[in-house]
Amino acid sequence: MAGRTVLILGGGFGGLATAQHIRRLLPREHRIVVVERRSSFYMCAFNMHLIAGEIKDSREGERELSELPQKGIEWVQGEILEIDPKGKKVRTSTGTLEGDYLIVALGAEKTPQSMPGFAESAHNFYEVDGAIKLNKAMEDFESGRIIVLVCSTPFSCPAAPCEVAFLFDSVLRRNGKRQSAEIAIYTPEVRPLPAAGADVGSAILNMLKEKDIRYYPQHKVKKVDSGARKLIFDGAEASFDLLVGVPPHTAPQVVKTAGLTDETGWVPVDLRNLETPYPGVFAIGDITSIKQPNPTGLPLPKAWVFAEEQGHVVAENVSSRISGGAGSKQFDGKGFCYLEAGNGTAAYGSGDFYAYPTPRVYLEPPSQRLHKERRELEQDKLKTLV
Q1: What region does 345 belong to: left with phi over 0, alpha with psi -120 to 50, or beta?
Q2: What is the pLDDT of residues 150-165, one digit of tens each?
């Protein structure tokens, strides 16, 4: 059999999980090529540990992509300039690549500049520098109103706004300043983690209430007034002394230009095998548009655990097709999430997001054991992904 080429666009969690799995399944005459502009992989979950002050150096969550060739995976460092899904071609800043299969795992771009006043006013904890600065802001905070703002949905890691609020509560209590601070979350969502179901949302609301963290749902921000230090909503305003924010998310422009996105702004895929309308072209992770196959019709959360499992499904199916099989592996919609709860504890949610008539997801209360499990899992993933 002549060797085939599998092009994987994106060296994030989903792209690397796919590359590693498919490399284990296929003999070495088949090329596995990862295209990524960055020189290293950073696991964004480590931002929570930077915010909490549990780690001081972001390099603890980072691995060099130059190690990939040792595992039989080619790495092309370059900017993706054009994608031809019909021809399975990719033009990059270092040349043009052609493949037999194309897997798009470019994730969601964060665009703080698209929300007026956000970049000038908010700590963007999705960025490493923002997480480090936020840790200092937490330690230095004396009194006033802290707002955690969700600009729009969907966004990566749906638990993140609550996690940051819990960390603020924890640090302020440790520093004896909690009574002089108000913590509030403003979000366009109807409840926390809506895709996980009403029970999980209610459990998290109770956790927030126990910590005296106020939750304001169905608030879609129009702009941030930097000078007045206010959030402007339709018919309402909210003042802040310190603003922490989830910036707007979007699919990369190169994906939109390629015609891979639909009216949602994301890439539609078969919810079972992750194939796009273009045969042999797949998409996984945060870049996808997947609605839960139940009456809720809510989007599947954008989270690394789904990107990883989707990558495994695609790897199984692509390797099967290359080997002459049908490629019948299916994504089952099951997933889990550790939720940082402050004071060295974490909660744990897991279940079936594809369940009918509503998602069946359960939340285990916060504990130090779960926090320890989270740290161990993250370290393990770092070792196996690169």
Answers
A1: beta
A2: 999 999 999 999 999 9
